[in-house]
DNA sequence: CTGGGGATCCTCCGTTTGGGGGATGCCTGG
DNA sequence: CCAGGCATCCCCCAAACGGAGGATCCCCAG
C-alpha cells in the first residue's frame, strides 16, 4: 500500500504522554515519529518543517488548543490526517472535532495495538473512533439539540458564576427580559429546565 | 543515602501514560520500575508481590480509585510512599489526597527531571508538590470553607441534574424545608448564593 | 458531660425564576 | 427574495427560590 513509513507527529502538552506515545511507536517498521510538539503553535511550526502524514493530538492544550490547531493544520497541510487523542469524551469536543474533519477520535486508554491500527488507517485515508465515542455519537444523533448561540453562552457563563437575571442584564447591557429569553432558548437547546442543570449540561458538552 | 535503587510502581489506567512513565525512568541507576498497574485493585495486588518503595499513581481510575487505593495501600504497606500524579488540580482531590498522607501531588505536565527528583525525595521521606498545586493550597488556606456534608452533596447532585426542591425532597424522602436548609448550608460552605453557582463550584472542587 | 456538627423539620416573606404568549429588526444562506 | 436564526424587547403569572429566624434529635470528640 505504501512504500515509505508513515510520518507521525505527536502533539500533547504533557511530557509523560508525549514520551509514552513515542515509545509506543518505537520499533515499528511502517511508522516513524518525526516530531513531538507541546502545543498547537509548536505543532504548526513542526508540521511545516517535518511534513507528517498523520498527527496524533490532544485537544486541551495551552497557547493554541485543539480545534484551532486542527483548522490551521488542515488549511496549511490538507493531506495531513489528524487523530484526536484525549482523556475526555464530551460531546461538544467530539462534534466540534469531527466538524473539523479529523480522521479519528480516540481516548487515551486506547491500547497500543489499536493506536497502531488507527495511525495506519488514518494514513490510508480511513477513520477511527473509540467505541465509547461511537456510542456517544449514536446516542446523540437521535435527539441532537443545537448548541446555544454565542450570546446565549455569554449569559449562561454569568449564570454559572452566580449572577441573577438582573445582574446579567446590567453586565451585558441588555434588558432583563432579553436575559430571560436567552435563557429560555438555552434551556430548550440543552434539553433542561433549570439554570443549574443548564450549566452542568454546558460544562459536560465542553461549552463552558 | 541508599544502597539499593528505589523500587517504583506505576499506577495509571492509560497504557499511554504507563508506558510514558516507565520510559521516563528507564536507564536511571537509582530508580527501578518494578511494577505497573492499571487500577487500584491491581495496584494493591502488585504492591504485595513487588514491595515498591514509591508508588506513582493517578487519582481517577476504574475499579478502585485513587483515594481508596491510597488508604488501603498505606494500611498494608505503611513504609510505601505514594505520589499522586494527575491531570487535574481540583481542590477537592488535592486536599483529600493530602489528608491520606501522600508524599507528593504532581500534575502530568511535570517534566522528566522533576519526576525523577520527586521520586527520590519521596523515597527519602520528603514531600513534593507541583507549583500550581502549592499555589492552590496557599490560596485555599486563607479562606478555606469546609466541604459540604455527604447529605448536602446528595441534594446538590440532584439539583445539578435539574431537580427542584420539591423533587429533591420526594427523592430523598425528606421535607422540602430540609432540602432548603441543606442547600443554604451548601451555599455558605461553597461561598455562593445560587444553585447554579453551587454546582459549578462543587464541580470545580471535584465534589461532584 | 458538654459542645458542636449533622440531619431533620418549621414559619414568614420578598424576590427571582420559568413558561406562556407575542413583537421587532438584522443578517445570512438558499 | 424569503425563511430562519439571532438578538433584542414587551406583558402576565404561578411557582420556586433564598434569606432570616428558629427548633429538635443524635452522635461523636474533647
From TrEMBL, chains A, B:
Task: Quote the Pfam families the UniProt record gives.
Answer: GerE, Response_reg
Q: Which residues form the Response regulatory domain?
A: 7-123
InterPro entries annotated for this entry?
CheY-like_superfamily (IPR011006), NreC/VraR/RcsB-like_REC (IPR058245), Sig_transdc_resp-reg_C-effctor (IPR016032), Sig_transdc_resp-reg_receiver (IPR001789), Tscrpt_reg_LuxR_C (IPR000792), WalR-like (IPR039420)
What Gene Ontology molecular-function terms does this entry list?
Answer: DNA binding
Keywords in alphabetical order: DNA-binding, Phosphoprotein, Transcription, Transcription regulation
Q: Which residues form the HTH luxR-type domain?
A: 141-206
Modification type 4-aspartylphosphate: residues: 58
Q: Which GO terms describe its biological process?
A: phosphorelay signal transduction system; regulation of DNA-templated transcription
Q: Which domain of life is it from?
A: Bacteria
Q: What is the protein name given in its UniProt record? A: DNA-binding NarL/FixJ family response regulator
Naturally occurring in which organism (per UniProt)? Nonomuraea endophytica
